[in-house]
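Quick one: structure for this chain?
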Amino acid sequence: DNTEIGTADIEVSLKGYRREILLDDVFRIILGQVNKLTITKATRSNIDLSWDKVIGADGYLVYKSSDNGKSFKEVQKIEDGNLTAWQDTNIKLHSVYHYKVCAYKVWNEETIVGNESKSVLQKTPLETAKLTGVINASHNPLKVEWKKVKGAAGYQVYRSKTKDGEYECIKEIK
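Got it. Here's what it folds into:
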């Protein structure tokens, strides 16, 4: 009947042909694993995570990797077992981040940590190209120049005919 986090006593009695054997041991009851860790939103400035609640958890530990999932560091301790979402605002453009989450419970002044979730990953967008010049040679098309963006496989050039008008893609460069 023991289902609470902590330890449980168990007695097993085995009756054989010649004598009765009694086993007595203590087992540790642990937290469940965090399930359904997902990226709910990713923008240029933040990545939002959410997961299913773990029954009995006092909170959650969020881990992050920026080295392709090779090593993870704890980046947030959430001290509310009902809070199942977190926003990472410490991100850089043109990066890949992996995340894992563990539930934890404080019991007898000891922190018990459950098994970590499966990892999820999110790639952040590239930086925006910065214009370095627009040259207007008479009777020739405009010449637009920009700084190369690390990781870009190509560029799209947009134009608007008015200051507040809609922009349309006029050229794709690969």
